[in-house]
Amino acid sequence: MCFMTIAVDGYDLIVYGATVPRLLAEPGWGLDANGVGMIGSWTLAGLMVGLVGAGPLADRIGRRWLIMLGVLWFSVGALFCALAHSPFAFGVARFVTGVGLGGVVPSSVALSIECAPRNRRQLYNALALTGYPIGGVICALLAIALLESHGWRMLYAVGALYALLLPAMYFLLPESVNYLVDRGRTDEARALASRYAVDFDQALQEEQRTHHAHSASPRVRGLRLMMSSQWRAAVLLFALMAFCVQLVIYGLNVWLPLLMRKAGYPLGSSLQFLLVMQFGAVSGNLFGAWLADRLGSRKVLIPYLLICGLSLLVLSQKPAYVWLMLGVFGAGLGSVGSATLSYGYVAAWFPASCRASAIGVVQGLGRIGSILGPMVGSWVIGAKLGPQWSFYAFAVPAMLAAVVVAQIRESAPSPMAYADV
């Protein structure tokens, strides 16, 4: 269910780009390139609002209900997109859709982590997050099949059909055992843990340690706990890490084909490089998560980010074919693979009482990088400094992210360390 929910995000990523040519030609709209960019920014702004707002709400009302609310919200937003009668109405609908998308991500990641066996948490999280590229592939195939014959509105109407998942979610999607324990619903949590083979004793011990830390003061949860004096520095470091990773991912996805062409490679080869990069991303997701369950996320994230930075430096030097392909593969592995690991690292680092809040705030702030990434590429290309400088521009934030991760503790401080919030 979490996989299918996250696939919504991937679908939405592709559907706008796939329909832009038709939107530009829509009779009576008069939409131009600037308008297209503005609507794209509204979508990302809505996504950031959803991420930051939904995390604390998930810690308050539960992961299950917020996932269902987010799916409903996205479906309504997609329907409004299909029915939009003007660029302004379409932009507002895209913003609303973005809010719904941002709302499902923190809850889905938190629930995936909390329902997984403790020695498979990162792997289960990575498997759920593979819904993102799968959703994009589904949208691309639907665009090929439907866009010419049925128009752009049909693709958004298909997105609205995601609401049909809600009955299955209502009956099949469980609540988080950790959330139930944190809310004092112990009997319900024990029964659910038994049904899904979740380590109930571990969840209970985590809740008891957190409760013991706050025994002398009112219980603190969610955003307030996450932003306490002992935790806010880690939140800012995680957010800076996410910012750098998102900047690299979105910058490379937009500019890599053009950069490779400017470096002297033909168009066909440039698109091939993008495919190799995505293959590296998928491989990095699963292999990195498998390693993280055994070594710890921090010990895998730092090498991944360094691989990304070094791979970009290799690409800047016009290497031989084998090194070229390894460089593109490493860029995908180190960028998208690091993004998946960062979700799991944040989720495993924070306790259940503020886990979704931390995921939402960290990734919401990190999404600023997704806005700046394409802009950084355009600035460097516009300055006519040479194609190698574009690779340098993305290698630097990858290296910076590795330095940031090195400043974060492998695991969270003991509960007594934040007893004074």
Automatic annotation (TrEMBL):
Cross-referenced Pfam families: Sugar_tr (PF00083)
GO molecular function, one term: carboxylic acid transmembrane transporter activity
Database matches in InterPro entries: MFS_dom, MFS_sugar_transport-like, MFS_trans_sf, Sugar_transporter_CS
SUPFAM superfamilies: MFS general substrate transporter (SSF103473)
Transmembrane segments: 39-58, 65-85, 91-111, 123-147, 153-173, 231-252, 272-292, 299-315, 321-346, 358-383, 389-408
Residue ranges occupied by any Major facilitator superfamily (MFS) profile domain in the UniProt entry: 1-413
Cellular localisation: Membrane
Keywords: Membrane, Transmembrane, Transmembrane helix
Any GO CC annotation of this UniProt entry: plasma membrane
Membrane topology: Multi-pass membrane protein
PANTHER family, A to Z: CARBOXYLIC ACID TRANSPORTER PROTEIN HOMOLOG (PTHR23508)
Protein name: MFS transporter
Species name: Paraburkholderia pallida
